[in-house]
């Protein structure tokens, strides 16, 4: 019988530069964005979030908005949830994006 793997997936949040608002696609996805709130990317990964962020910035399996506009990780928004199973990380990525949008953030999801 195979042994269950330790939960090792993570959700993460990347702060995006204000210039991301120049993208029509980003604006259309965020009609409820509130002035003064950050722009963020919410993702999930089986890697350490720091390593995943570095890969985005290097253009490796990168989200375009993170590659071009990613500033830094915002661990205060996600650390308490990690690590988790793949299934839980998938659900938390969606839930966290919804929660941040409800708070007025501009959100793009992976």
Task: Give your account of this protein's structure.
- The chain has helices at residues 24-29, 49-58, 64-69, 86-102, and strands spanning 10-16, 39-45, 70-73, 106-109.
- The protein has 110 residues and is α+β, with helices and mostly antiparallel strands.
- The protein has one domain (10-109).
- The protein has a four-stranded mixed sheet, with helices on both faces.
- The longest helix has 17 residues, at 86-102.
- The radius of gyration is 14 Å and the shape is globular.
Question: What's the topology here?
Answer:
Blueprint: E1 10-16, H1 24-29, E2 39-45, H2 49-58, H3 64-69, E3 70-73, H4 86-102, E4 106-109
Parallel strand pairs: 2-4
Antiparallel strand pairs: 1-2, 1-3
Shape: globular
Write down the Rg: 14 Å
Provide the helix percentage.
25-40%
Note poorly predicted spans.
none
Biggest pleated sheet: 4 strands, mixed
Overall residue-averaged pLDDT value: 96
The DSSP helix count reads 4
Number of domains: 1
DSSP E strands, number? 4
SSE ordering: EHEHHEHE
Query: What distance lies between the first and last C-alpha atoms, to the nearest angstrom?
Result: 34 Å
Sheet/helix structural class: alpha+beta
Strand content: 15-25%
Strand order of the largest sheet: 3-1-2-4
Key words describing this protein structure:
single chain; about 20% strand; 4 strands; 4 helices; about 110 residues; globular; 4-stranded mixed sheet
TL;DR of this structure?
The protein is 35% helix and 20% strand. With 110 residues, the protein is of the alpha+beta class.
């Amino acid at each position: 019988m195979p042994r269950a793997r330790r939960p090792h997936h993570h959700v993460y949040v990347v702060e995006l530069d204000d210039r991301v608002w120049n993208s029509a696609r980003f604006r259309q996805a965020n009609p409820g964005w509130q002035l003064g709130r950050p722009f963020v990317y919410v993702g999930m990964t089986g890697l350490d979030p720091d390593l995943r962020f570095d890969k985005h910035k290097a253009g490796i399996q990168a989200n375009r908005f993170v590659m071009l506009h990613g500033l830094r990780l915002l661990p205060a928004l996600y650390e308490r949830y990690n690590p988790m199973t793949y299934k839980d990380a998938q659900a938390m990525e969606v839930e966290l994006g919804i929660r941040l949008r409800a708070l007025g953030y501009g959100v793009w999801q992976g």
